[in-house]
Amino acid sequence: MISDGVEDEEKWLTAGIAGLQQNAFYMHRALDSNNLRDALKYSAQMLSELRTSRLSPHKYYELYMRSFDELRKLEMFFKEEARRGCSIIDLYELVQHAGNILPRLYLLCTVGSVYIKSKEAPAKDVLKDLVEMCRGIQHPVRGLFLRSYLSQVSRDKLPDIGSEYEGDADTVIDAVEFVLQNFTEMNKLWVRMQHQGPAREKEKREKERSELRDLVGKNLHVLSQIEGVDLDMYKDTVLPRVLEQVVNCKDELAQHYLMDCIIQVFPDEYHLQTLDVLLSACPQLQPSVDIKTVLSQLMERLSNYAASSAEVLPEFLQVEAFSKLSNAIGKVIEAHVDMPTIGVVTLYSSLLTFTLHVHPDRLDYADLVLGACVKKLSGKGKIEDSKATKQIVALLSAPLEKYNDIVTALKLSNYPRVMEYLDTETNKVMATVIIQSIMKNKTCIETEDKVEALFELVKGLIKDLEGNHQDEIDEDDFKEEQNSFARLIQMLYNEDPEEMFKIICTVRKHILTGGPKRLPFTIPSLIFSCLKLVRQLQGQDENPFGNETSTTPKKIFQLLNQTIEALSSVPAPELSLRLYLQCAEAANDCDLEPVAYEFFTQAYILYEEEISDSKAQVTAIHLIIGTLQRMHVFGVENRDTLTHKATGYSAKLLKKSDQCRAVYACSHLFWVDDQENMKDGERVLLCLKRALRIANAAQQMANAARGNTGSVTLFVEILNKYLYFFEKGNPQITVSTIQGLIELITTEMQSDTTTPDPAADAFFASTLRYIQFQKQKGGAISEKYEPIKV
């Protein structure tokens, strides 16, 4: 059925165009022969095609545009006739004899245009005559296009200020009156379309009306272009008349479109000075009108106007724009009881943007907007509408973008109250936005109170909120969120140690509520924040003033110990061990031997009781050896105890190769360059010999199990350790020992049972080249290496 209707419409349009073209042909022929009577006859017949009621507005427009082109030619002819002495008044009378009213009025508008241009009669009289006579067409579509034609041909002939048609009898008021009257009649026709035809075609009519809206809106554009419409005339005449028509038409489509037109076509300055009038119309609109979009566009226009120049800001203060907009939004929301949440939030989001542009220094205004939003949202619970939550994120992001400083946003008491309405996921998104703002602007949070306020905003990342299902969380997203929060901890800093310690305690209190899954991300960041404070206080053991509450390294280390212990609930023994060793090193720098020993003890307990994976043990033992080697605070007894334990752990690793490497690494525990009391050559040699025995045992085991002795890499590594201590002046490392090891490696490499290993061969060759290079270097080092034969 629909396709049949479309085909029929195409046929009617084709027939209409054919009839129009045929009559246009005869009209042209009459024009060429200066036959006025025939020209009028055929032009009237041509325009009769516009009397059809069968075409949709879209198809009718096509027919209208063809007629419009022909009428322009007819208008040119009339101008020529006037120049040749033909009376325009007679012509104006003559076209009124056309048989049908629609062709008659089109011809009348065309001649009227020439009549005004000839100035034989006041423009206002002709315009008034034309606009009144157009009332003869009450069919909506035909009437709209006719009046659109009248608007088109008259727009450059209005008696505007500075116009050639302005005179004693013609004023700008007449021009405004003409456009307003034409606008009023067109709007009535446009609204009437909605009430014609069966109810089942309502949707189709809505679509058709939407296509025709620009015909009505052009009148407002013409009004905005009239030079004589100053602020006073706009305030006293134009706006009240237009709004009267908007409110009285009681049509949803018309009201929304026309309010949008008013906001878009007239200057921002006019809107600012007539806010009362414009806003008072909003609650009177139909409940179904999308008022949030209208008001949002108005506030966006005014925000941009305020941002355009600082000079216009006093105008906003003068008219009290903020309070007027705020009151208007409140009234609109009250009038529209069923306004969805997204509408409420969008309105307050636009108002906040406006406030931040116009009153950037008035934080109380911004807080008022957030407070009003909270009031309207109260009782709604968590907002689940995704579009509404996006608008809340936009609302909360506005202060961050404007001030580029979270500290300023923290002063807004209603900011966290708005966040309460976000669902768990969006709360986390907003928390991430806040952290990104802090990182981007390198904002430093300096007090305990501000940290508390900030953590209230980002609590969605700190702990599980109600309704948060851990099983549903994407692992990668979770890691990204927690890493983001861990970076935030480093932005919490105060140069005053007392204040910084308070901040650390506040952070610790919050992150310990995060549960075992979050602690491995958050605790390391807190630990390093504490260690930064320790370095700041380095050398200060006790408070010189004797104040027990004072912050000292000892006090911080106690907190560190308790904090790392919290990781046992995860459990994360490898991470805990690393953190204990970091703390031990910091205690070493502060010359706190008992503290450093305690941290090492905790690390050793973790190694013995918690770390069972062989790879993790290898990594852990090398970390222990490396940290212990750098410690200078221990006395002989404590150092021997820790060193003995470390060498014992090394010898008990699962794989022989790991044992060997750990044992020769232990040799560094007995020889520290810058500490004379820590150079025990004999024990270094013992470690290296022990490593050689383990390497030899590894070869024998490989031979027994696989029939070959494997690679000589371990021997070459041990040779390099011998060379290191030989250079450092260890008297126990002799030339003969090194020579013997070189020969052993050479023999092993030539053995049939040794597995070929290009990497080991290259390593050994490189070691021999190094010996050769040292021999050729000259000086004491050359003499030292000279006896070694390679």
Automatic annotation (TrEMBL):
Upper taxonomic lineage: Eukaryota, Viridiplantae, Streptophyta, Embryophyta, Tracheophyta
Stretch forming the signal peptide: none
One Pfam family named in its UniProt record: Vps35
GO biological process, one term: intracellular protein transport
Name of the protein in its database record: Vacuolar protein sorting-associated protein 35
Keyword Transport (UniProt): yes
Membrane topology per record: Peripheral membrane protein
GO CC annotation, single: cytosol
Role according to the record: Plays a role in vesicular protein sorting.
Keywords: Cytoplasm, Endosome, Golgi apparatus, Membrane, Protein transport, Transport
UniProt record similarity statement: Belongs to the VPS35 family.
Compartment(s) of residence: Cytoplasm; Endosome membrane; Golgi apparatus, trans-Golgi network membrane; Prevacuolar compartment membrane
Species annotation: Carya illinoinensis
